Every structure is written in structure tokens, then in C-alpha cells.
């Protein structure tokens, strides 16, 4: 059974929407990568391979008792729709029709009580549970891994999509885990409020997923990462509920919020989150700047942030990303040509595009823009006006659609992110780019690697890499693994974090010991052992496989 | 052996400094409280009751091996100096000469390796360990509680007082746990940097203590609470070291920083912290404002904070605290009288004093002051210029000295703090004040209760209460316990946190289950069981006694 708003089972977004990839851009990309003309469509739905549900009759009946029989789905399509997230390996697998791992059923609780009942049944019956929000994980976070359990269900939180409470004076809202981005903004918008959380997955990702994975929105420099917004939280696990009340700050021991935020479904199911909200800004002004080099632009961003002058959105593309963005950009080509001529005349050709997005009231924006512009100019930036900002804003959620079009054309496209301190940022940038290029070059599939700085902090920033290569025909997953491993090793060696906002999931689990040490990993295991003694919650995620490092 | 910079064993601060309590202020306080003329000095050091060290010869020799024999002290004075923190019950106990609980020895490691060795010895020998920074806990956090262990040592981190690294570009500094406030500022000052962390205990409290207790400085509205400053951390426990590298943000699972920050010596010993720092501000401008009522002032503060206009220091006294501050204020009495006349003429007599402290460069301060002043005035505030601000700044670390003088005069004085959302703040204020007044009124010792709002957050603020009453002669601890219990029950009932920055320690442990639930408490126990399987680390703190709620 297909649900309203469900994505393509094999790719991103609305099945009715066909992503547009300009033929000229495709052909120049092919040329650059040495990628042969080749296409490979996903297999038809009817050819997807999926086994019989292995859920026992007794477990099935108990789960129906927990959520109501109409809210347990074990038809083929529901199971396929919950068989994978939206990472590159997920898409490779799904496009080829490999859904043998699909959950044995999907259950849709409507309340925390029903989640408690489902977990009780699953703990008693030995059924693994994969919490499922928007299913947008790009790190294998919702991959159904049985890990010794005979059966596995997907716990879809889509029915827990209520805005329970708005506290206008304290600028807090209590939100259900199943609310998707547009639903959040619509519900809060009725009170003149916004969460200000706009990750690229905004259209599908959910509150529970954001909180469980430490999501960052594109305006996080201004609004904060999701963990900075979580004031109160409810989570349930087989050991019982944990309620962390909404207080602005506390010294009452360790902050368990931060143990549950980012717990990726392994320590509990988030059933409610009280998040900081803000008044909807009167205006948004997104504008473009250009720098002669990436380090120069990064230095300007550091000053912006450390002088308290950073806007809500701050994003700096390296030279390659700037070039690609210009190539792919839709819009008025006459204006674009005029813009290029201006940039060239001023000596900034081949430079790095920055987007600054200010939100607020007119006078506040004017004041903050003036402050930021002084810093940008004295650091070597050239203002390009609002046209590049508007273009970026129009396309801000498009990349995942484009990825499907590239995969149709057998072009590998993957993204990964890290964060590091300002003093080490350019070394981190160089090391990761080089590692990806080297790994793919060695396989005979030279890569195009691009990067942007975004999500600024006083102590550093995140780096977001995208890379492209000709897809290997039968060994696409090995090819991906080689690039991913090389990049993550390089990140660790250069002092970055293994993930800034995509989470650990399956893909980064092997590196967690190098992020937090073995005592740290065992500490999370001890917490899991307490909260989920039979280990039913999202097996195989976050924690590395025992006995090895993944 | 007395150490350089050691405090009075029976009270606060430099033994050579005699706190000044104006006779007129004392007599009007006595009158207000119905407190009889009575004085009680602390017993002389020679009369303090302390038993023989119960450390076994073998354990003592091993500990000497770990830190060097000159760094293990078990003389009478060293043990007495580590026998208590600086909470009201601690002072009552120490002034009466009751140091039977004193640690059996004090060890002074110089490095993380030595801390590891000490913990190894203590785990093997079954010796309890109380980590000791400045010894300024006001919640029983360093009370030597044996909890079944035959022997107990105090682990004084005073020798681990190095500034290991400054990263000027990333505005980070790696600090040893034993650095006291003035040492931190002096060391950072050499690089033109400041931590901006100025709690009332600044002169004695340490980096490790701040991190272990979620400390808040008086300028935390601008600089953040200590947990907002911790970017990297090292901690050791019997299970081994945990190193959390300094990255500006991460999505690599649960944030273990937030499990170790606030762990109060129960989960490990903090051996190093990488903290966010800032350039030393060019100027500080602290100024006074007055409001006709406490709710009116609080509403102004909410607007300041939510509109991004709050200064580094923001503090609003209620009517009683304002009156007492004026009574106790030193300084030019002519100017004070003139100020009072002005306030009276404008209809603000009996109002509430606010302090706003701006730090930065001259133009930034001017711009921010103008913004804040617009909000303050339109919310009903009257500007009083810099005189009250300077007076507050001069006296900002004085209150604990004054407490000793009041105790000499048999006047009970205690402080406690909470935090709540803006929408519930005035109800929380009323409930806590009423609970304290009622509890002490019932004992025949009517209280004077005063409060200030400080430490602003978008979602709420902290409330800091001080209260005074005639001290009961033989039942001072029961009297204190009655007031403390009533206040904490009221806090929980009104939705506040049991502590905003004093930590849990011994005094709040019984209420922890009502703060984070029994599953939450057991989760911390599970973490402790993993990190400290024999339970040697700071027994009896943070976690409630098992079997009951404290």
C-alpha cells in the first residue's frame, strides 16, 4: 500500500516529478570524468526481489493488537518502501531490485502508548525494530539489519504528527516525531513561528529523525543545529520512558538529552520533542559574494562568525563547486553572462561563490548586512547582489532529485561531510579531497570532487563534499566503499569529525571507536544494555560490530 | 600542611581577610528576622575533631608511588582543609569542629598518568576517591562519604594547572583541571584572551570543578554556561580514558561530552578541557536600570534576550533584594541619597534594580546599548547610569565572605537556584519564595527571602534565591533541611530544574529521580557501573541512595 507523500521506492522525492538534467551539463560531466555513454533504469516494481514476511502469526496478531489491524501493513509495496534509506548504497541496491532485506511488516503507532506496546511485543517475541521517520537517511540508518533476529518490523512514526503545544512566550513548541518539514512549518506558521530547520531533506525528513541524527539545516549558522533546539524530550525504550522536561538550562548532572539526541533509534524511540522556535522573519535576503580563493573566503567566514556578524545562512563553495553551480544553474542566461563578465572584469574569474542569507526585520537585516559587508569586503570579497542568492534558494532542495538523474546515467554521485576547527580547516579540506581523488583514480574512475563550507561555529565549520565519477558496472558498491573509506580515514587523520550532520548509521559505525575511543563506544553499549537489554532497537546501526571495528 | 591560596578551613576565602558587615545593617536584619543578639565563633583549629587516618600502609605506599611521597599529605590540616565544601551544612559542621569525616589522605597528582595510577591503586585497594578542585561546592559535592569503603582519599587537582595550548584562530584553549579562575584569566590574558567565566566562586573554583558541575558565570548570558564552552574533553575512570576531540559540532551519535560534563566526579576525573575563549573586551560598561515591579523587569529581560539584544551580564533583583542591596551597598552615601531621590521622584521607589553589563569594543557597545535601551524603556525601565553597575561589579565576589560574618552572628543564610521557562517564571518565583517563607515561619524563624533573575536564555531564565533567618541554636541543620526540602519540592512542582548551576552533589540527589525519572537515574547508574565498576568515584554524590529516593 502506498501512502500519501511516499517517495519513489528507488530514489528521491515525488514519483511524479522528473528531475531535469541539462543534456549539455551531462555531456560535459561525462567528458570530464571519462564516463562512457551508458544508462541503467531501476528495475520495474514488479521485478523487485522480496521474500515472504517472516513475522510469526503470534507476533503479527500482538502487533495488530498494539496499533490496530489497519495500521499493520505487510503488503509488498509497504515493505519495499521501508526497505532502505536514501544513501548511495541504498539506491544502488534498490534500483537493482534487491529488497530481500525488507522489513517483515510496517507498524504505524498513533501515540506513545502504542509505541510502548509495540516495543513490549517486539521485546517479548524477539522482533527487531527499525524506527522510521522520513526514511531519508543517507548513512544506512534505516537499513533493516536482522542481526540474528528472525523477524524485523519497521516502526513508521508518520501518524504521530501533531503539534501538541505552543508556548509563545518561551518560544517553544512540542512536536510529534512524525511531522515532516513542511508540516512543521505549516503548523508553526499558523502561530507566526518557524523552526528554521531546512536540511536538504526538508520535504520528507521528520522531527524524530532530525533529533535522532543531529540534523543540521541550511540556516543552522543562524538557527542552530537541531541539538541546539532541543529543550525537552520524551523517548521510550524497552526499559521504560525517559522524559526530560523543558527547562532552559540545568546543572542536574549529566545531560541525558544529549545521550538521546543522536541515538539513531538504538537507545529508544523519540516520541516527542520540545524545540526552540522563532517568529517567522519578515524578510529573507539571500545574496551572493565571490572570493578569489577558498582559503580567503573561509577566512572571511571565520571573521564573520567570530565577530558575531554571521547571517542565518552562510555557505562558501570551492572553485570546482562554483564552476559546477554556474554550469548547472537554471535561470536567465543573459543575466548570467552579464554576471560572469562583471566577475571576470574584476579579476574574480575562477573564484569561489559565497551565499549569505539574512533573515529578520528590514532594519535588523540592513544593520547586519552592513556589518557583514564590511568584513567581507575587507577580507577580499566582491558583492554580487541577490541574483545568486535567489538562484541558490530556488534550487536548495534539488540535489537529491538530480542524483537520481545521474544514477540513470551511470554516474556515481555521493556526498559526505565533516567539521573541524578553523585552524585545521584547510588541511582537512585538502586531505579529504585528495583521499577521494586518489581512491577513485586508483580504480581507473577519476573523480570530480567539490566542497563547500557551511554551518559556522566560533571554533570552526563544517565541510560538505560532493563527488562524481563514472560508475563501475558490476562493482559499484566496492567502488563506493573504497572512496568512502579513504575519505573517512582522511577525516579522522586530519582531526575532523566522522560526520557533522548525516549521523553514524551503518556507514560510519566502523569509525566510531576512532571518534570517541573504545571506552566511549562501550559506554554507549552499556547505556543500550540498560535501555534495550534484548537488543531489538535498530540493530547494526551506530555501534560497530563487536569483535572488530565494524 | 597549608597550601598557597588555601581558604579558611571553616569558611570562605583568604583567612587574612575579615569581612565587613555594617553594624547598622546587621541590627536592622536582626530586627526584621526577630533574631536575638547572639554570636558563635568557629572552634579553634586545635579543637577540630578528626580521627586517625584509616588508609592502610600498603595503599598509602602505593599512592606515594603514584604521585611521589611529597605529594601525599595526611597531616591534620591538609585533611581538615579537604573535609568539606562551602555549603551551609558544611560550614555549620566545620565551625563546630566536626571533621570526623575528613579524608584519610590528600593526594596531588601532577598529570593524567598520575591520576590513572591513583585510580588504579584505589580501585585495587578499595579506597574511595573524592576529586577536589577548589573545594567550593555548595551542595555537598566534595563531602567525604565512605559509603562502605574503609578508606577515602581526596584527589586534589591543584598541581594540574597548566594552559596546554591556545588556538587563537579557532578561539580554543586547552586547560588543566586545577586552574583557578584568576589563573585562567591571567594565563589567557597573556594571549589577549578571556574565558569570560566569572562565577561568584571565581577566586577559588577550578576549571575541572566548573566542568564537572555545569557552572555558570555571572556573564553567562553573553559567554554561555560552561557546558556551552566545552569543545573537547579528557576524562579518566577505572575503565580507562575517554578523549573527546575538539570539533565544533558533530553528528557522531550521542554526545558523550554532555555525559561527562556535570558528572560531578562520579563517572570520571576530568583531566583536561578544551574550552571556547574570546578576545579580551576593550571595554566593560555595567549600568543600572530600575523597574516598578519584578514581572515588568522580567518581561523586559525576556524581550532583550529573544530579540538578540541581551548584554553579557543581565541581572534583575526583586524588590527585597533591591532594598537589601541598597542597605548593604558601600560607597558614596551622598550620591546614593541623590540616586534615591531621583528614583523616588520618578515613581520607582520600592522597585527592582537591574544590572546590564556590556562588553566589547566601544562602537559595538554603543550600538548594543542603544538597542537594549529602547527595549528596556519601552518595557517600563528607567536608566540609572553606571554608578549601580560599578557598585555591583566591585562587590560581585563578596557574598560568600559576608556569609561568614552572618554565621558569626548566628544568622542563617543560604542560596539556591533554579531555571524555568519564561511562561512559568513568575509562578516558579512565587512558589519557591512562598515555600521557603512557610517552612521557616512554621519553625518560628520567619525568613527574609530575596531573588534575582540572571542567566537569560531564549526559552527562559534562572532564578537565584537568597534567604535569611534567625539560626536555631542546636537544630541548625534540621532547620536548613526543612527550608531546602520545601524549596526543592516547590521547584519540582512548578516545573523548574532542581539546580541551574550549583549541581546535584549530596543535597539534591534525592530529587534527581523527579528531574530525569527513574529510568534516567538508572541510565546514569549503568554508565557508572561501566566506568567505575567498584564504585570508588565520589560515593554518595549525584545519584540518590539506592532503595529510597535519597
What does this entry look like structurally?
The structure is a homodimer of 550-residue chains. Chain A is of the alpha+beta class and 550 residues long. Chain A is built from 19 helices and 18 strands. In chain A, the strands form four sheets. A seven-stranded antiparallel β-sheet of chain A has the order 15-12-14-13-17-18-16, with helices on both faces. In chain A, α17 (425-442) runs antiparallel to α18. Chain A is globular and about 75 Å long. In chain A, 56% of the residues are buried. The mean pLDDT of chain A is 94.
Keywords for this entry:
homodimer, 550 residues, alpha+beta, seven-stranded antiparallel sheet, five-stranded antiparallel sheet, 19 helices, 37% helix, 20% strand
- Assembly level: homodimer
What portion of residues of chain A belong to β-strands? 15-25%
Indicate the radius of gyration of chain A in whole angstroms: 23 Å
Chain pair forming the biggest interface? A-B, 84 and 84 residues
In the sheet with the most strands of chain A, the strands line up as 15-12-14-13-17-18-16
Alpha-beta classification of chain A: alpha+beta
Based on Cα principal axes, name the global outline of chain A.
Answer: globular
How would a crystallographer describe the biggest sheet of chain A?
A: 7 strands, antiparallel
**Number of discrete helical segments of chain A:** 19
Compile the SSE list and pairings:
2 copies of one chain form a homodimer.
Chain A: H1 23-33, H2 57-67, E1 72-73, H3 76-81, H4 88-95, E2 105-107, H5 112-125, E3 127-132, E4 151-156, E5 163-167, E6 172-175, H6 181-189, E7 193-194, H7 207-213, H8 220-223, H9 226-229, E8 230-237, E9 240-244, H10 257-260, E10 269-276, E11 278-279, E12 283-291, H11 294-306, E13 313-317, H12 319-328, H13 333-345, E14 352-360, H14 362-378, E15 382-385, H15 387-394, H16 399-408, E16 411-421, H17 425-442, E17 448-457, E18 460-470, H18 476-493, H19 512-531
Parallel strand pairs in A: 2-4, 3-4
Antiparallel strand pairs in A: 1-2, 5-6, 6-10, 7-11, 8-9, 8-10, 12-14, 12-15, 13-14, 13-17, 16-18, 17-18
Amino acid at each position: 500500500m502506498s501512502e500519501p507523500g511516499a517517495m519513489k521506492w528507488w530514489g528521491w522525492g515525488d514519483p511524479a516529478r522528473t528531475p531535469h538534467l541539462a543534456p549539455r551539463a551531462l555531456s560535459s560531466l561525462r567528458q570530464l570524468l571519462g564516463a562512457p555513454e551508458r544508462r541503467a533504469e531501476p528495475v520495474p516494481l514488479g521485478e523487485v526481489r522480496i521474500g515472504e514476511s517472516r513475522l510469526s502469526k503470534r507476533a503479527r496478531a500482538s502487533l495488530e493488537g498494539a496499533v490496530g489491524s489497519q495500521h499493520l501493513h505487510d503488503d509488498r509495496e509497504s515493505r519495499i518502501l521501508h526497505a532502505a534509506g536514501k544513501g548511495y548504497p541504498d539506491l544502488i541496491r534498490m534500483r537493482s531490485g534487491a529488497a530481500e532485506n525488507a522489513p517483515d511488516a510496517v507498524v504505524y503507532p498513533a501515540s506513545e502508548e502504542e509505541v510502548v506496546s509495540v516495543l513490549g511485543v517486539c521485546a517479548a517475541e524477539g522482533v527487531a525494530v527499525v524506527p522510521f521517520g522520513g526514511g531519508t537517511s543517507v548513512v544506512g540508518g534505516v537499513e533493516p539489519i536482522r542481526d540474528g533476529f528472525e523477524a524485523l518490523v519497521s516502526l513508521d512514526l508518520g501518524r504521530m504528527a501533531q503539534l501538541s503545544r505552543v508556548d509563545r512566550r518561551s518560544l517553544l513548541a512540542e512536536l510529534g516525531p512524525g511531522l515532516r518539514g513542511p508540516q512543521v512549518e505549516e503548523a508553526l506558521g499558523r502561530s507566526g513561528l518557524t523552526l528554521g530547520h531546512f536540511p536538504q531533506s526538508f520535504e520528507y525528513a521528520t522531527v524524530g529523525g532530525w533529533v535522532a541524527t543531529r540534523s543540521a539545516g541550511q540556516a543552522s549558522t543562524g538557527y542552530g543545529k537541531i541539538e541546539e533546539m532541543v529543550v525537552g524530550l520524551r523517548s521510550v525504550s524497552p526499559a521504560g520512558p525517559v522524559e526530560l522536561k523543558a527547562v532552559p538550562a540545568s546543572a542536574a548532572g549529566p545531560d541525558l538529552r544529549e545521550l538521546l539526541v543522536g541515538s539513531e533509534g538504538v537507545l529508544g524511540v523519540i516520541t516527542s520533542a520540545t524545540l526552540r522556535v522563532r517568529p517567522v522573519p519578515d524578510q529573507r535576503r539571500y545574496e551572493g559574494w565571490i572570493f578569489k580563493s577558498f582559503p580567503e573566503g573561509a577566512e572571511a567566514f571565520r571573521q564573520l562568525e567570530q565577530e558575531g556578524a554571521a547571517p542565518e545562512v552562510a555557505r562558501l563553495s570551492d572553485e570546482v563547486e562554483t564552476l559546477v553551480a554556474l554550469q548547472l544553474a537554471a535561470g536567465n542566461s543573459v543575466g548570467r553572462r552579464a554576471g560572469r563578465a562583471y566577475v571576470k572584469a574584476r579579476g574574480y574569474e575562477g573564484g569561489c561563490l559565497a551565499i549569505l542569507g539574512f533573515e529578520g526585520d528590514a532594519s535588523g537585516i540592513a544593520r547586519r548586512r552592513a556589518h557583514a559587508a564590511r568584513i567581507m569586503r575587507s577580507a577580499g570579497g566582491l558583492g554580487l547582489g541577490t541574483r545568486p542568492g535567489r538562484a541558490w534558494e530556488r534550487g536548495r532542495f534539488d540535489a537529491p532529485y538530480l542524483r537520481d538523474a545521474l544514477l540513470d546515467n551511470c554516474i556515481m554521485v555521493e556526498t559526505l561531510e565533516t567539521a573541524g576547527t578553523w585552524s585545521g580547516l584547510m588541511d582537512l579540506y585538502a586531505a579529504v579531497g585528495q583521499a577521494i581523488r586518489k581512491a577513485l583514480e586508483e580504480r581507473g574512475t577519476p573523480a570530480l570532487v567539490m566542497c563547500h563550507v557551511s554551518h559556522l561555529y566560533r571554533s570552526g565549520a563544517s565541510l560538505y563534499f560532493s563527488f562524481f565519477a563514472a560508475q563501475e558496472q558490476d562493482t559499484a558498491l566496492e567502488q563506493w566503499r573504497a572512496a568512502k573509506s579513504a575519505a573517512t580515514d582522511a577525516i579522522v587523520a586530519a582531526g575532523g569529525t566522522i560526520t557533522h550532520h548525516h549521523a553514524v548509521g551503518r556507514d560510519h559505525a566502523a569509525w566510531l571507536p576512532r571518534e570517541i575511543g573504545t571506552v566511549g563506544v562501550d559506554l554507549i553499549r552499556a547505556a543500550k544494555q540498560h535501555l534495550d537489554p534484548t537488543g531489538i532497537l535498530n540493530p547494526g546501526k551506530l555501534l560497530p560490530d563487536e569483535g572488530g571495528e565494524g
